[in-house]
Amino acid sequence: MHLRTILYFIAFPITVYALDAFDFNRFLKQGKVMQARILYLLLCFGISYLAVNFFMDFYSSTMFQF
Predict the structure, then answer these.
(1) In 3-state terms, the chain is what percent helix, strand and coil (to 5)?
(2) How far apart are CA 44 and CA 41, in angstroms?
(3) Contacts of 47 (CB under 8 A, 6+ apart)
(4) CA–CA gap between residue 29 and residue 7 (Å, rounded)
(5) pLDDT tens digits, 4-53
(6) Does the pLDDT value for residue 1 go beyond 80?
(7) CA–CA distance from 18 to each of 12, 21, 43, 52, 59 (Å)?
(8) Which residues lie below 8 Å from residue 45, measured CB to CB, with a gap of 6+?
(9) Between the CA atoms of 30, 33, 17 and 3, what dihedral angle is there, to the nearest 10 degrees?
(10) pTM of the entire structure?
(11) What is the pLDDT of residue 43?
């Protein structure tokens, strides 16, 4: 298994846990449950993708410094 895939499996639950602290009901329309769930999943995937790419770029840029 690649390191990037392992980081995705680690970053996604952390992102879900972090987004649970945010109150989405304040910003969403009433009765739009399915759209809210889709938005929540897209945000989780997007933030996980950005976090994993950041860590992979950081790792690859510091690996060749020594």
Answers:
(1) 75, 0, 25
(2) 5
(3) 15, 18, 19
(4) 34
(5) 899 999 999 999 999 999 888 788 888 888 998 999 999 999 999 999 99
(6) no
(7) 10, 6, 11, 15, 23
(8) 12
(9) -140
(10) 0.81
(11) 95
Q: Work out whether the CA dihedral 22, 26, 27, 28 comes out positive or negative.
A: positive
- Which pair of tokens denotes residue 45? 């995937």
Q: For residues 25 and 11, give the distance between their C-alpha atoms in angstroms, rounded to a whole number.
A: 24
Tell which residue, 10, 9, 42, 8, has the closest CA to residue 24.
Answer: 42
Q: Per the structure block, which two tokens stand in for 60?
A: 């690859």
- Between the alpha carbon of residue 39 and those of residues 5, 10, 44, 45, the distances in Å are 23, 20, 9, 10
Place of tokens 């969403």: 28
- Provide the greatest CA pair distance for the chain: 56
